[in-house]
Amino acid sequence: MKLKEKLQQLRSEGRGILATNFYNLETLHGVLNAASELNEPLILQLTQSSIDYMGLETAVNLGRTGLKQFGVEGWIHLDHGGSVELAQRCLDAGFDSVMIDGSELPFKDNIEITKEVVKRAKSYGAHVEAELGYVAKLGQSHDEQVFTQPEEAKQFVDETGIDALAVAIGTAHGFYKSEPELQLDLLEKISKSTDASLVLHGGSGVPASQMQKAISRGICKVNLATEIKNIFMKTLQSELRNNEEIDLRKVFPVATGEITKLVKTKLQIVQNNK
Questions:
Q1: What pTM, to 2 d.p., does this model score?
Q2: Of the listed 52, 79, 96, 109, which one is catalytic?
Q3: Of 4, 229, 268, 274, whose CB count within 10 A is highest?
């Protein structure tokens, strides 16, 4: 099933899908083991930093092989693509979906760069995601809030032809200093204004109740990255503090197992929102 069809199906059912970033073999296996144990679909996401770290071909092959090995229904997605050129490379590499993030550009420029990626993705049968509004990235201020507006969301989707829209409704990338308050009434209005699949970025740290309410109001894709990196590294740091073991094959599985526990919890939140 194409990702666009899957997201439309989930939206009609009032359910969501988890989109998890991976950074190496261990983080990949951690998220896939969780999806396999619960028999849930999953979107595997790669950022430019992860692509640069692992290499594009290696990263894609890891994802494809992992999905097959664990028997998980899944798709590979470019997260926060910053240029048409990167999106093109990922399309050529066989990504199922690409995101072009022009959210920091003026509205008209965001439309133009997004239209170009949609045009290129069409011949590949690939899914395209874009972002509208201000969802603070790592290192950026959480104080500024520019929410996605329903009228602009409709215009943006109509003019670009995107499949999915990441909306700014009160989330941010990274950890929160205080509990976020999602603009659920605004989300409901955005959902009514467009048929595009709606995406929640900054899923790390969002309380389960708010996430479930967001899904019931139109969100069908929830991104998770920061918590995966955090639990992997914190677990490793703890394991190695008083440990003289040099065999990484004995140390890494402990951290991988913690990722599996985390992602299983998140999958249950995303799927059981009735």
A1: 0.92
A2: 79
A3: 4
